[in-house]
Design brief:
about 450 residues, 20 strands, 6-stranded mixed sheet, about 20% strand, 15 helices, alpha/beta, binds flavin-adenine dinucleotide, single chain
């Protein structure tokens, strides 16, 4: 691989991590970002405030040497704390080993840290307030606007990596030029963030070591802890229709909706009506593109190539895994065109698989978690993992705690496991009703050992 300079557009989580990894391989990196430098500034509003970080993301951050800078900022969550309609709660653990946790982290803190680490690497230059505005594919140049003076700069591509997120301008440019096929599938539901402040002593007002869920069938509320004692709650709801963001505009209707569906959470949100009216409804969707590159000129990486809905908490984790795999491809292949082609061929089946699982998890979180049959199947899958650890790992655990298991394997094995769980729990109401000898026979017949 030649050690040519690499240009990256978009200094979000993917662009910043990629800059760090490529710099380590000896590339000079020019990173262009529309927004102003976030370092030393308060967070911008309008984007999810905290994120769930899991094993795939942590593994990538460790490989890049960034994890020690972030470890202090992580808040462990050991399971889903389900809030039922009557105000009762129950914990569904995510895993069964001490390290089987996921972590809440501030998006702003994560971005800042990645940029701090990237910017202190010799050979990495970050150009804030520089917006990519178009590509001249015949000439192999990209047009970037310096927003501070308005000047338009032309930079060579070969290679230019587009990590400009779900609404990627580069993806749309490549699609308009018929260089790739791309489409965006809009979910009928959107999201809105609401806050649950700390108590007077600065402490969390609910268990801080869990991800809180209020599953209500066609919609749900979730809340993740922040390190200042607050929680960020996110309401996922239809955008249009009888019960929807569109229909909930009047204070009385908002109050009625919250008190009917989330009475316990409502009491903890003093600014609920003002926030409900002021905060935007966020877009949720899935991006699909193929191929992800044009010659050796440019490639889409991260959300620009494959944004997914947030219900598995894997979007950014998946993007970080992209960076690791892309970095590995640069070691294996001599030309950027080969790197791009191999990266796409290896990675797309996995990003397609997590896109499917992320959509499926919406149904699981807003509806299935509340059903006794689902709860029995959850308990059984943990028990089967205890008894047959090399053969049976719950799908959620494969995705969240096993970076060595590709997403496509998790999806394939998860489908077989789901059938098995349904068969084994038919007519059962507790674990003592399960025929474990049959379970063992079926697992041996249907699931090859992992590794
Ligand atoms: C509500 C919600 C909750 C989520 N929760 C989780 C979670 O819990 N766990 C998880 O793993 N993932 C989560 N995600 C997904 C996660 O946010 C994304 O996968 C991740 O941010 C993608 O990173 P990225 O760098 O590829 O794109 P982005 O984060 O979108 O960053 C793109 C960057 O490019 C810049 N940019 C855009 N256009 C241009 C341009 N023309 N020129 C220059 N710069 C440009 C932007 O300013 C931005 O800085 C969530 C997403 C949403 C919407």
């Amino acid at each position: 691989m030649d050690r040519s300079a690499v240009r990256i557009i978009g200094a979000g989580p993917t662009g910043a991590l990629l800059a760090i990894l490529l710099q380590r391989r000896g590339h000079a990196v020019e990173l262009y970002e529309t927004r102003p430098d976030p370092r030393g500034r308060p967070p911008e509003s309008g984007r999810s405030i905290n994120l769930a970080l899991a094993d795939r993301g942590i593994h990538a951050l460790q490989l890049a040497g960034v994890f020690p800078d972030l470890e202090q900022a992580l808040l462990p969550m050991r399971g889903r704390l389900i809030h039922d309609a009557e105000g009762g709660t129950s914990l569904q653990p995510y895993g069964q080993r001490p390290n089987e946790l996921i972590y809440s982290i501030s998006r702003h803190r994560l971005n800042q840290t990645l940029l701090e680490v990237a910017a202190r690497q010799p050979g990495v230059t970050v150009h804030f307030e520089h917006r990519f505005e178009g590509a001249e594919f015949d000439e192999g140049t990209a047009l970037i606007r310096d927003l501070r003076g308005g000047r338009l700069i032309s930079v060579p591509m070969h290679p230019l990596l587009a990590t400009d997120g779900a609404g990627s301008w580069m993806r749309r440019s490549m699609n308009s030029a018929h260089l790739i096929g791309a489409h965006e599938t809009d979910l009928e539901h959107g999201y809105k963030e609401l806050s649950i402040p700390a108590d007077a002593a600065g402490r969390h007002r609910m268990a801080r070591d869990a991800l809180h869920i209020w599953p209500r069938g066609n919609f749900m509320l979730i809340a993740l802890p922040n390190d200042d004692g607050s929680f960020t709650a996110t309401l996922f709801l239809a955008k249009h229709g009888e019960v929807s963001f569109e229909s909930l505009t009047e204070p009385a209707a908002i109050e009625r909706f919250l008190s009917q569906n989330f009475p316990d959470a409502r009491e903890l949100m003093p600014d609920r009506v003002a926030e409900f009216k002021d905060h935007p409804v966020g877009f949720l969707g899935t991006v699909s593109a193929s191929p992800w590159h044009h010659q050796g000129m440019t490639a889409l990486i991260g959300d620009s190539a494959h944004a997914i809905v947030p219900f598995h908490g894997q979007g950014m984790n998946c993007c970080f895994e992209d960076c690791v795999e892309f970095d590995a491809c640069t070691l294996e292949h001599a030309s950027w065109e080969r790197v791009f082609a191999e990266f796409g061929a290896l990675r797309k089946p996995n990003t397609d698989a997590i896109a499917v699982m992320a959509l499926d998890n919406y149904l699981e979180m807003r509806e299935r978690v509340a059903h006794p049959k689902f709860q029995l199947q959850q308990a059984l899958s943990l028990e089967l993992e205890r008894r047959f650890p090399q053969r049976f790992i719950p799908r959620y655990s494969m995705v969240m705690f096993h970076h060595e298991i590709p997403y496509q394997t998790a999806l394939r094995r998860g489908t077989v496991q789901a059938e098995l769980l349904a068969e084994l729990t038919a007519g059962a109401s507790t674990l003592s009703d399960i025929d474990f000898e049959r379970a063992e026979r079926e697992i041996r017949a249907r699931l090859a050992p992992l590794n």
